[in-house]
Design goal:
single chain; 230 residues; alpha+beta; Immunoglobulin-like; four-stranded antiparallel beta sheet; 2 helices
Amino acid sequence: MTISVTFCLFVSLLGVTHGVSITAYGAVGKNVTLSPSLDGKAFRDITWKKQKDKVVEWFGDSQEKDFPPFTGRVVLDRTSGNLTIFNLTASDEDEYEVELSDLRTTVSLLVFELLPFPILNCTLNEEIIRVQCVIPKHYTSHLGFIQYFWACPSAQCNETVGHELHFNKSHLPKEVWCTVSNPVSNMSSSMALESCVPKETFRKHWWIIAAFIAVAGVAILLTYYFITGL
């Protein structure tokens, strides 16, 4: 099985006016920057809150002050108003509010566990092989955001967006890949599909091939003898 992992982080902007609503996505143990997206503004004071609890505040020329449980885990950019939170925890997920002078913006932060390796399994029902891409049961972080992507030489892989594929036993690609993705990470696993077909089937196919080769060999020898007159 071959596995690859990629980590990504992005912020989705839902509006750009006073009272803007922003959704940010972060991963446990990683960093995220919450941005009020108010470029070109000059701020005299900035206060970030998680619900009603202060995260960090700054007034004029004074040093900013951060508050538990964010002490030592946040950095405030006084120019942009951006708040960077380090070493995210699941409990950091919540709605945040920033007050910048006379402006106010809310940011909803969703915190995800990094995705685990997906598990590929297959079952055979008559001539149809069903391949499933499964997230381990211990992973329960925002399951509704997970997307599935398939890769293989067959058209089914390009046309399927769910967690399950179907192949005819006689038209199996050699290998299939499944990638699971959410807003902060993606993970991929592969499976050799010959493992989905019982060994008895391969033995039967081998005997057919062997018999064909034997018959072809005899035919070639007979042709040779006929031509040479031996």
